[in-house]
């Protein structure tokens, strides 16, 4: 069921709710993208109420700022309040994992459980980003030249889509199916909000270790072992959290695509547990 959610400053956010049971709110990746986890929602909605939403300025939500982590955390709280939930479980993917963590730290009494999928941890980006850039180029292989040509020039809307599909293809462990998986991510295509992406990526994350060490929400970290973002970046987050488990799946950055049964077993079991 699609719904329009209004933020306190009047921005319209797209949201959809399916299933029955305890509420779980998804936080998609990006920044600047849109929810691409309809398959995950369908898989988990037999045992939970799943809420998907597009972040401010993204996808089916109103394309208007301002853009900041603090503002996006407030928007996520507007989603929770709109549906009348006192507390929710959160499942965040990639940038959305960081968002879900930041929300949980800001509102620990409103989060029952946290699922942190393919995030990049709490260390400074300088500790892992150069290795990610290297891995990206290696994974692109024969598509590297075209990706670099598109990256370094003004692009049409069609070229934006091509550029993103090429880059996303590096996120899959199965190189033979990588481009097909990336094409599926771009269907439907809503257009990346590069302004939002730049604004949120410019923000420097505060040192979160102290807050993480006192976090009471049970947390599940899910990694794809072939993710081109080094998984060691998440080690310090795992060490900081007092109640945490971690599952590593034979997959890339979107583990539910390449190991759906493993992902369902790990996440479904965690959400259904005490």
UniProtKB/TrEMBL annotation:
Domain called AB hydrolase-1: residue spans: 23-157
InterPro entries for this protein: AB_hydrolase_1, AB_hydrolase_fold, AB_hydrolase_sf, Peptidase_S33
UniProt GO MF annotations: aminopeptidase activity
Any Gene Ontology biological process: proteolysis
Keyword terms: Hydrolase
GO cellular component, one term: membrane
Entry's family note: Belongs to the peptidase S33 family.
Name by which UniProt lists this protein: Alpha/beta hydrolase
Taxonomic source organism: Amycolatopsis dendrobii
